[in-house]
Amino acid sequence: MIRMCNNTDVEEIYLIINDAAKAYKGVIPDDRYHEPYMSMEELNNEISNGVVFWGYEENKLLNGVMGIQDKGDVSLIRHAYVRTNQRKSGIGTKLLSHLTALTTKPILIGTWDAADWAIRFYLKNGFSLVSSDEKKELLHTYWDVPERQIETSVVLCDSKWTS
Hints:
The chain starts with a strand and ends in a 6-residue tail after the last strand. By secondary structure, it is of the alpha+beta class. The chain is built from six helices and seven strands.
């Protein structure tokens, strides 16, 4: 079952993100990886800044989460994570399909350029990579990330995006 997460889920969201983000260790630049990958303060800031988390729940246990954030003329998919022991079970695809159906706006997704599994996942689900120049412009416009993250990230768009 997919459901919107609420305040009682914040601890579980935190645990899922930090469990799944261990996949980045040794893959993304060392200066961008730390543990926990996302602090509770950062998570609460994301929620306060409009990221709405949805979770995939089975047997009253959240197994994956994905956020969506309205940015006016686009929606951003943010923080897509599935528990390590639940990967490759279709949870990410179900969450992405659900969230993309929530909006008629173009959807943008940012991820690490070294996270080839994430890029393959989004490409398989109908997203396309934008050019390097467009990536920089989009990350500056719609995200609040440091320049180092911009250097080491990619942006993907759905078919509704027109540059």
